[in-house]
Amino acid sequence: MPSSVSSFFLLLCVSLPLLPSSSSSHYPYGNVSFHIDCGGHTPSTDRFGVQWEADRYFTGGATGIVSEPLRFSLPQEKTLRYFPLSSGKKNCYIIPGLPDGRYYIRTFTVYDNYDGRSHSPSFEAAVEGTSVFSWRAPWPADVERNGAYSDLLAFVHDGEADICFYSIATDPPVIGSLSVLKIDPGSYDSGSVNGTDFILVNYGRFDCGSGQWGPGFSNDSDLFGRSWQSDYNSRTSSSRGIIDAISNSASIKGTDQAPNYFPMKLYQTAVTLRKSGVLEYELEVDAKLDYMLWLHFAEIDSRVNKAGQRVFDVVVNGENVSRVDIFKEVGAFAAFDWHHTVQNLSSSFLNVRLVPVVGLPLISGLENYALVPVDLSTDPHQ
Predict the structure, then answer these.
(1) What are the residue boundaries of the Malectin-like domain, all occurrences included (predicted)?
(2) pLDDT band at 376 (very low <50, low <70, confident <90, very high)
(3) pTM of the shown model
């Protein structure tokens, strides 16, 4: 990913009362959700049924409209809020009245020459006082024009979520939309990684063998609010020519369950190899951070009907970290999820290889999260 924009963002887009309930019924945990159309003056409902609140909870700034609004299919992608230097070097969205707990926070950031200056801005973004997103001019052309979605998981302990923007030089930070959803505090194995001490920043969420789907891209539901993207661009060039995508519409056991609510659709597609070789991914990251990898599997090939028929090793940055036999773990047409933390990463790439032992490897999904330490100076309990 280009260095001008940090690889914190997830997807490139191609195309309130204190506790609003209008859109919260879609989510299974906490019934607390906010969807804010930054720069929007009236409430709206997008074509996927998500209800967006008019812009609110900001500390300053002004509203703008992308230069080519007809190119954007969703109303909340056409407007934005920007923060000129006259509003100060720091500006925030402060979402009040939140129960303490863990939250999924998603932003859409777009420039599209809204100000006619043909100069994408440089700025930093922070959640709960911890820097999480970094934007540097010039942005890649497709990001500058089409925008990008970013998301993370963070704990809120003081009754309000602070999402703040810091201007660099005289550039005004921008934001197109903001979603904040309460999630299960135990999600993504929070307890074993001291989740309250880290923000999990998404560096890639891939549905193997599928295209983009989820909020903002399709009507397919993810009870967690996540969107998923194709794994194609993260496959190594040597893998692309030997990979087969497979799918099965059969029901998958163990999906849409607490605490992670991984959706059934994720496991109904997969990639495997059409011939001998290694199934390999190369994930772009920032060095000096730890990363949590989540790998998702389901045996959806009915020809595999007993343990020992499909066995493969998971090798991360050259280290063999696990041997997987999906059928042995959960049987057929059932979800199996496994995660691994990579520590003290010193390179800008994270390599994941599925190496055959018996038969050919198979994978349904892959997620990569940076473990960003919380800035303790902002913790009200310190």
Answers:
(1) 36-370
(2) low
(3) 0.91
